[in-house]
Amino acid sequence: MKNNVHGGLLPAVASVFLALLLQGCSAPEPYGALPTDYQVQWQKMDRNMFVHFGPNTFSGREWGDGKEAEDLFNPTDLDCRQWARVARSAGFQGIIITAKHHDGFCLWPNPVSNHTVAQSSWMDGKGDVLRELSEACREYGLKFGVYISPWDRNDPHYGTPEYNDVFVKTLRSALSSYGPVFEQWFDGANGEGPNGKRQVYDWPLFHKTVWELQPQAIMFSDVGPGCRWVGNEQGRAGRTSWSTLNVEGYEPGSAAPPQDTLTLGNVHGGAWVAPETDVSIRPGWFWKESENGRVKSLNRLLKIYYESTGRNSLMLLNVPPDTRGHIHEIDSVRLGEFGEALSRIFSVNLAEGASAEASSSFSRRYSPSNVLDGNYDSFWTSSKDSKDATLTLALPGEKTFNRVDIGEYIPLGQRIYAFTVEVLTPEGIWKEVAKETTVGFRRIVLLDEAVTTSKIRLSFSAYAPVTINKVALYMDDIYVKENERSTPFITKLATDPVTVDLGGAKRISSFTFVPAERGQGGVIIDWTLQGSLDGKNWEDIIAEGTFDNIVNSPTDRTIDLPSPTWARHLRLVPRRTSNGVTYSVSSMSAK
Ligand code: FUL
């Protein structure tokens, strides 16, 4: 299958074609897999907010086990309108909420579950977070989306064929009660371990259900069909970033393509499944008091924006509400700063008033000046048989900029595989200032330093005539390039423990383990923590511990001990690592 045509939906290009046919003109032909109209609309959203909220907000866990009492969920002052205001201040266009996370707790009264807000004493069982949030989104002009985890640690049917039926009913309930849903998030995670429950998911049935109830909803999973996971939870799309992916034979979760394939996509991939970059503003996905001091800096948020939305992806930033049901003031202030910074950076397009020339054009209708007119559907195309093409902008005088913002006209497919940016020096010489690979819907090129010039030339190599709908130039005087050096780590054999000498006997109540920043060399999933006073006699402090979600998110983990314990030496003995052979450790400490 070349594209995601389903349920009578036409790819976006069909309407463009029809208009041209009626006018009797020849038009550039589409190339490769194509997005649907809905996928193009989704890509235009630029950035969205993710909300992780549920029993974990109150327990401090990342993955609840499904045994939590319903009464644990008890926001003291739920205010979804505050979330919506914060989202607007950051320029988000939509909000996606964890309607059901892996613990199975439903934030709405799901009739096929006994583990929902209706069974809790919060608002006497009458509360409904999806209702509150969908109304707030409507009021503030935001789109509304839901995360509904297929993995369910509470539902008794999980692991049997009946669960698929329960899950479809769950989808039906959530997707038919709260108005339009722009995105349905299917998480692929499953931490059941080798001896855990195995569920064979009926994906075709799940997709059919979503399409029936919410035909416009973009379905997220490792392999789409609407959009795909970017392959990491650090906020980093690929410098090479194809919206196309080979999906045949793959499924979300353990049967998904390798994570780096999800990051890069597949050139000439069979389906259009653009990457979405989900990342949290804090180390964890759920709110924790202990992480109030670890909200990402403005600089880090800008870096993430450039490396997600600026790399042919869509930024999905998680902002977890606290136990009041508010977005904490530290996060909300940061998001206001983020929104302001982006408005300031992108407020003055220095290419405004420029004139454009190209090495060739498909016809007058597809002339180079179209890249400057601000109209999404008017674009420049190089001549019919060209694969390489250059576009030169003569600016209205000397301009100083450090961002080159380029858009490929994706309704006709993604086709550019390499490009350079050159500027004309005062000596009249073209100087190369950037060399990159893919463009896609939006590529923001970060120049190493600001350049002052009156002419800029872009040279593209593509698999078909080049189609560009936008080139804009900006000056960012806020973001400071971060030192790319990562923290050192060592790789150990899965049979070797990590040992720490605290320098003397100490009464400890928690320990912190830090893996390599990108999980290089594998990560510890299950472990035993042992303590010793003399380094010879060891006792188990935690016999069976797990670092939840560490494979997708190899960040530091702080684990509280069941009770304060005296020890001089600590030993973390791996019981299971992600690759079965090795794991990495950057540091381990105790408090
Ligand atoms: C992961 C989950 O396991 C995390 O808890 C979180 O929801 C993240 C967005 O996706 O796969």
Offer a concise description of the structure.
The protein is an alpha/beta fold.
Largest sheet: 8 strands, parallel, barrel
Structural class: alpha/beta
Separation, N- and C-terminal Cα atoms:
56 Å
Counted by DSSP, the helix tally is: 10
Instruction: Tell me which ligands are bound.
Output: beta-L-fucopyranose
Query: In percent, how helical is the residue content?
Result: 10-25%
Would you identify the regions where 5 or more consecutive residues have pLDDT less than 50? 1-8
What is the arithmetic mean of pLDDT? Answer: 95
Strands of the widest sheet, in order across it, are 1-2-3-4-5-6-9-10
Report the count of strand segments.
24
Radius of gyration: 25 Å
Query: What overall form do the CA principal axes indicate?
Result: globular
Strand content: 25-35%
Distinctive features:
eight-stranded parallel β-barrel; seven-stranded antiparallel beta sheet; disordered N terminus; binds beta-L-fucopyranose
Provide structural commentary.
The chain is α/β, with parallel strands linked by helices. Helix content is 17%, strand content 31%. The chain has 10 helices and 24 strands. The strands form 5 sheets. The chain has an 8-stranded parallel beta barrel with strand order 1-2-3-4-5-6-9-10. Strands 11, 12, 13, 14, 15, 16 and 17 form a 7-stranded antiparallel beta sheet that branches. Strand 3, helix 6 (162-175) and strand 4 (183-185) form a beta-alpha-beta unit. Helix 4 (80-89) packs across helix 5 (129-139) and helix 4 (80-89) runs parallel beside helix 10. The structure holds beta-L-fucopyranose (FUL).
